[in-house]
Structures are given as structure tokens and as C-alpha cells.
Design goal:
This protein has a domain of 56 residues. Helix content is 89%, strand content 0%. The chain is built from three helices and no strands.
Amino acid sequence: MNRRMELFCMYLAIVAILALIYIFVLFMNTLFPSINAVIRDFRQFLYYQYLSSSDSTGYIYVYPPLLVVFIIFVILLYNRNI
């Protein structure tokens, strides 16, 4: 009987925590109805900043040839041809 009471208390605690989380999320949704739009706009802003900064630096055009040269150098070094 004592084991059943412990399980019941544990399940009751889990249900209570889930209910509190639901009430909190519902409260936050009514308090900040436009939070999704703000986060979406902020994410688009960060993505645009990342693309514009990488495009203006030109590193995206320099690194692939350097990577190919480095891989060829490592292969030749491994084969002892250098």
C-alpha cells in the first residue's frame, strides 16, 4: 500500500508540474502575442548579416582553393614525394 501511495504522489507531482508549465506558456502567449514574429524577424536579420558579411570579406572564395592545395600537400607529404 505504501508503494502505491508513493507512485500516486509521483504521478500527481508530474501532472502538477505539466499543468504549471502549460499555464505559464499560456500566460506568456497572452502577454507576448507577437513574440514569434519578433524572433522570426531577428533570425532573418542575423542570417542576412551573416551572408552579407561573408560575401563582403571574400573569404568564401579564397578558402576552397587553399583547402585543395593543403590536401594535395598532405597527400604528397604522406607519400614522401616532397
